[in-house]
Amino acid sequence: MRLLRLKLPVGKTVTRLLLPIVLTPKQVETDLSPARFKILKWGRRTGKTWYIAYWIAKNALTRKGKHWYVTKTLSLGREELWPVLLSIIPRQYILKTDERYLAIRLTNGSVIAIKSGEKENNLRGRGLASVVLDEAAFLKESLWDRILRPQLANSRGPALIASSPKKGWFTRMFNDQCKNPHSDWFASHATIYDNPTISRDELEVIRAKTPDSTWRQEYLAEELAGVGQIYEEFSPKNVYNPAHSFLDIRSMRQIRGIDWGTQANTGVSWIGITSEGYLVVHGEHVQSGWDVERHVEAMNTKSAGLNVVDNVLDRSAFRNEGTSGTSIAELFRKQRIYCKESIKDIPSSIDAVKRFMRGDGVTPWLYVSDQCEKTIEAFQTWEHGEHEPDIAAACRYGVVWAVVKRLTRLADAVPILRSVNNDEKVSQATADLLLAAKAMVKPVGRSARWNWDMGAGCPI
């Protein structure tokens, strides 16, 4: 059982309150941390749901205000957390419960509510006293850093960010805290072995009947290769505000990447190239059901005043289509949009984009305007095994073209695509020197060396 001090609505102090839960050592370690923000990478059967319910109840009983639990769907919150919450909070402190809206009003004026993270805009604008983001790895990063985090500013309230692991923003945030601890943050990793209520014999039975990949990911909370976000390198550092940064975007050379969609969307990405060699994605166009002429009208309008040096179109659009025998590329040419074929080597071209997202380890080389919401969403949500979003493909075509054609000076420091570049590959030491001399970026130290796989032709 955990004992708490709290204040009643009338201002008198209750010296002790008993919550009906016995915390495990891992939960106690987490609870005793004074950090305001806590990241829990906990697997199944680690007591995550019970600890979350305890954490919400503790904060709601001691901090008057709105306390939200946000997860993937309302049904998940209703099935998993709702009954546990009702069993933990003492009845004498519950003023009202609302089964329909999954809300609990306490006698001290606090409100606990379960919310769905599916529609971000429904969660904007409220001030919160605390928040839990559960299964965070399966939600968008923007839900935390653009919507929920700002709503804690006035109250300086705490947050609990919990999830089973999956490659992406949640894992990156967890790893960053482990490597560079900050006093405001606490990171905890727990496996099924951290739950003392499960016998070792039972653990062995579970393990024997569970596929190895499921056991490692679900019970040991390990990230597996080929699972999760493809562009896991994409972070808030790659997003910029066009009102404050890259104000000279119209003076830059521009590349337009185009991914033609016959049945799906057509995506167009505008990429500027700075004098330092950074690539700046500042415009996007995503639309389905239009013919080439209509797309060109929209592209020309958005490109007014820009110095577009190349248009890079999906290779498949150069094949003849239909009974007319005319390719999409030819239709673009008739509209005075002269396109080049995108690079064929998809895995290596994805690696090149990832490389520019990372930059030198401190400063990214690829930036995306916060106005390009579809591009940001595509980078954050595209996962292994899924179809590549059209706008992500369009952006990839443009980025790789800039690298292959040496339109960015940073390309000289990257051993790129062997299939399209027969130049001698550079060594890592040479790349460091080129990077410092040509890109004017300080080479990273030995502790943060790039993990280059030269056999693949591109850093990974």
Number of extended strands? 19
Strand arrangement across the biggest beta sheet: 5-6-7-4-8-9-3-10
Please state the overall shape, judged from the principal axes of the Cα atoms.
Answer: elongated
Poorly predicted residue ranges: 416-460
What integer value in Å does the Rg equal?
Answer: 26 Å
User: N-to-C terminal Cα separation, in Å?
Assistant: 48 Å
The helix-and-strand class reads alpha/beta
How would a crystallographer describe the biggest sheet? Answer: 8 strands, mixed
Helix content: 25-40%
Mean pLDDT: 84
The fraction of residues in strands falls at 15-25%
Number of distinct helices: 14
What would you say this structure looks like, in words?
The chain is an alpha/beta fold and 460 residues long. The chain is 30% helix and 22% strand. The chain is built from 14 helices and 19 strands. The protein has an 8-stranded mixed beta sheet, sandwiched between helices. A 7-stranded mixed beta sheet has the order 11-19-14-13-12-15-18. The chain has a two-stranded antiparallel sheet with strand order 1-2. The protein is elongated, with a radius of gyration of 26 Å. It starts with a strand and ends in a 22-residue tail after the last helix.
